[in-house]
Design the sequence.
């Protein structure tokens, strides 16, 4: 069978990279069927074990189980997010309820729960090392929160809810991808494109050509708005782009997500009630570093008032400088660039010739990692990833030992979901003797064959950010798969990626990669100084748009079952929620609105979008630590790697932070960074 279906046996390629060249869509469902069968048999042996429970015959046995399912799942979901052809989408729709039912059958098995519970009760007598003890306590808590202790009737209802939710979240993502593609803005008159660079025009022409259209096509990113709004001089076109962006998933028709959202929210509230929590937000935050939705709300409220005040001042300033007295959301980025040019003498659109993608990657992102951690990168042209655009690099330790594989998938396409992300195809574990294979996905416009890709300042930031996740996935070395890679609390996982952004403009990094594509001249030092000095510039807007989205997430998931069961108008709900936190400026809409908020309705961030700002408290504190300890320094990098990145989820993240920093994080560096300390 393995000769017919390459997914039925482990890959023989380096680092167990899936043999994507041999995998066809029709291979996935049969492979999942076999993986489900194997996993059920492995778990049944543990659950039906007649010998008294021990750590080895229960916890370690469970960790060994499911290796094939993990391999097939990671192989498939890497593709379904980055190259979701109609065939792949159909498989995902069929697969979602099957995966949900399979997971529930294991998590809700009362025999397993009894064995784990007995060990948990006797944990102080088991003489376990720290990672093993954490595995026991985390497994017990996760099974409990999954509903393993519920009555049979409640378990049946829980399974029904989980199965339905798996279908709904897949539906949300499918609707969003379809509507995002449909709402791409078609431009017939090139004069409307005044302000954007030749490479951007080329990318828009290429996008139109791929759909059989004349002219230019402006495809939409996941967030509200578009990077080109900062440079497009044509105000009506800016408005068309913004309206298209904000209309996704909420304009009626087959791709409207409103009803899907309402049902997701209601079912999540009902599931939380079954598990003994008043709301979904309470259930989620109970097992995060935040601890409660009240703690999250307190942080968001603390930041909202000064952010809103700063945004109001920024709006008045932008209106004055730009002359747009009725400044709207579609004008903000354009007016901001005029203010930036006036006050800071920085033209961010004009910086693109200094940010050639290949040089940013090799002489910036990779070089910073080499300076900090000693690792090096070699492109493996002999290894094929899941799409021709995805490039494979082998990563080596300082002594030449192979560490893992890094895959970069830079360009946007109609089959790729919006945004940017990192995922692991293989996670490192001593128990499974596996090494990491990690992926970074971005959505940069492809200028076409023979033309070099020039990045915006934001895209450079995103590449450094996502590579921080990749480093976390590469470095985490744990015994048990449970803790491998980035398997940490959701409100901690963004911390390493945010820290890695600091190296983008750091001395010793930026002058190496930021060199003009035509002259090779480095970005002038005075420009770098102004960029570094502009840290609080536009932070009223940036903080407000983020907080608005985080508050929408918390508001939706703080509804009780009764409230979530009422007939909710999505637009009215958003309006009231934003009034509650005081973020009502029309020119500063939420970074994501409900019907295209993929993070929380099809991703893993439900009641967790706050995690970016929560993690930024640690991030800002860490940036100050690096500043106090040599900056881009090999010893400092090694301490950060060994004491924080390298422990994965095998240690409580706040304990790991204290071990690294020597104390708890303080919020003052974050307030200073965002200009909220006045």
Sequence:
């Amino acid at each position: 069978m393995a000769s017919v279906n390459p997914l039925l046996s482990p890959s023989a390629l380096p680092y167990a990279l899936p043999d994507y060249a041999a995998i066809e869509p029709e291979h996935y469902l049969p492979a999942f069927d076999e993986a489900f069968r194997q996993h059920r048999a492995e778990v049944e042996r543990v659950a039906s074990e007649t010998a008294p429970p021990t750590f080895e015959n229960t916890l370690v046995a469970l960790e060994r189980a499911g290796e094939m399912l993990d391999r097939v799942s990671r192989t498939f979901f890497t593709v379904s997010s980055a190259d979701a052809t109609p065939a792949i989408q159909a498989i995902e729709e069929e697969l979602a309820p099957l995966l949900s039912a399979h997971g529930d059958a294991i998590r809700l098995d009362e025999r397993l729960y009894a064995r784990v519970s007995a060990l948990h009760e006797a944990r102080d007598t088991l003489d376990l090392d720290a990672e093993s003890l954490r595995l026991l306590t985390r497994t017990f808590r996760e099974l409990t929160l999954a509903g393993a202790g519920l009555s049979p009737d409640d378990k049946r209802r829980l399974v029904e809810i989980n199965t339905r939710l798996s279908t709904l979240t897949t539906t949300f993502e499918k609707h969003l991808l379809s509507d995002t593609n449909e709402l791409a803005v078609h431009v017939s008159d090139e004069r409307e494109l005044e302000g954007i660079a030749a490479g951007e025009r080329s990318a828009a022409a290429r996008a139109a050509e791929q759909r059989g259209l004349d002219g230019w096509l402006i495809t939409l990113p996941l967030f509200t708005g578009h990077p080109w709004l900062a440079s497009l001089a044509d105000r009506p076109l800016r408005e068309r782009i913004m309206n298209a962006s904000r209309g996704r998933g909420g304009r009626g028709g087959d791709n409207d997500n409103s009803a899907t959202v309402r049902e997701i929210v209601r079912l999540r509230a009902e599931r939380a009630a079954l598990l003994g929590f008043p709301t979904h937000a309470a259930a989620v935050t109970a097992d995060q570093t935040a601890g409660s939705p009240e703690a999250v709300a307190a942080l968001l409220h603390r930041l909202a008032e000064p952010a809103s005040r700063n945004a109001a001042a920024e709006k008045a300033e932008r209106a004055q400088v730009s002359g747009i007295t009725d400044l709207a959301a579609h004008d903000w980025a354009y007016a901001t660039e005029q203010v930036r040019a006036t006050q800071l003498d920085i033209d961010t659109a004009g910086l693109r010739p200094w940010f050639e993608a290949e040089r940013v990657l090799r002489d910036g992102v990779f070089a910073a990692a080499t300076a900090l951690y000693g690792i090096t990168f070699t492109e493996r042209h002999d290894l094929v990833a899941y799409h021709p655009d995805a490039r494979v690099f082998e990563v080596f330790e300082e002594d030449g030992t192979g560490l893992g594989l890094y895959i970069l998938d830079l360009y946007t396409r109609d089959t790729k979901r919006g945004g940017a992300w990192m995922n692991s195809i293989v996670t490192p574990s001593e128990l499974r003797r596996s090494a990491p294979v990690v992926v970074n996905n971005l959505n940069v416009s492809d200028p076409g064959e023979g033309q070099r890709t020039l990045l915006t300042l934001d895209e450079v930031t995103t590449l450094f950010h996502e590579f921080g996740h990749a480093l976390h996935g590469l470095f985490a070395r744990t015994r048990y798969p449970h803790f491998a890679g980035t398997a940490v609390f959701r409100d901690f996982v963004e911390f390493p990626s945010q820290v890695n952004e600091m190296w983008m403009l750091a001395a010793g990094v930026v002058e190496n990669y930021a060199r003009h594509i035509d002259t090779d001249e480095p970005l002038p030092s005075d420009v770098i100084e102004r960029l570094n000095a502009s840290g609080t510039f536009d932070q009223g807007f940036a903080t407000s748009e983020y907080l608005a989205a985080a508050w929408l997430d918390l508001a939706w998931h703080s509804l009780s079952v009764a409230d979530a069961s009422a007939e909710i108008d999505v637009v009215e709900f958003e309006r009231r929620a934003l009034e509650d936190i005081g973020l009502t400026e029309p020119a500063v809409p939420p970074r994501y609105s409900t019907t295209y908020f993929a993070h929380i309705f099809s991703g893993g961030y439900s009641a967790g979008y706050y995690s970016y700002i929560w993690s930024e408290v640690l991030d800002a504190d860490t940036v100050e630590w690096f500043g106090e300890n040599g900056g881009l320094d090999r010893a400092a990098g090694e301490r950060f790697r060994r004491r924080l990145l390298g422990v994965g989820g095998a240690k409580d993240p706040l304990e790991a932070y204290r071990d690294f920093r020597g104390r708890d994080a303080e919020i003052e560096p974050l307030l200073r960074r965002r200009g909220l300390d006045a």
